[in-house]
Amino acid sequence: MLCILCTGTHSLKYFYTAVSGDISFPEYTAVGLVDEGQFYYFDSDTKVAVGKTEWIRQNEGADYWDSETQIAIGTHQVFKNNIQVAKERFNQSQ
C-alpha cells in the first residue's frame, strides 16, 4: 500500500499469541493495528488472513490476502516449533 500524501505520525503494531495445551483458544493468532485500530487478523483455526477495516479491504486484492495467509501460516509453524523447543528446555510436557 502506498500513501502519496500522508501527514502526521502513525503507529503500526503487530501482536502474536501462541499457546499450547487443551484450551478453547486458537493455537496461534496475529493481530495488526494502525493507530490502535485493528486492520488485520489471522488465527490458526480459520487459517485465513483477513482485513478488518474497509480501507484495507478496498485497497488490497485477493493476491495480497493469499500472500498474507501464507506468511501467517509459516509464522505459526515457527511459533509452534519455538514453543516445543522451550518446553523441552524447561522439561515441560504440556
From TrEMBL:
SUPFAM superfamilies: MHC antigen-recognition domain. Residues 8-94 form the MHC class I-like antigen recognition-like domain. Pfam families: MHC_I (PF00129). Keywords: Glycoprotein. GO terms for biological process: immune response. GO terms for cellular component: external side of plasma membrane; extracellular space. The keyword Glycoprotein applies. The keyword Glycoprotein applies. This is MHC class I-like antigen recognition-like domain-containing protein. It comes from Danionella cerebrum.
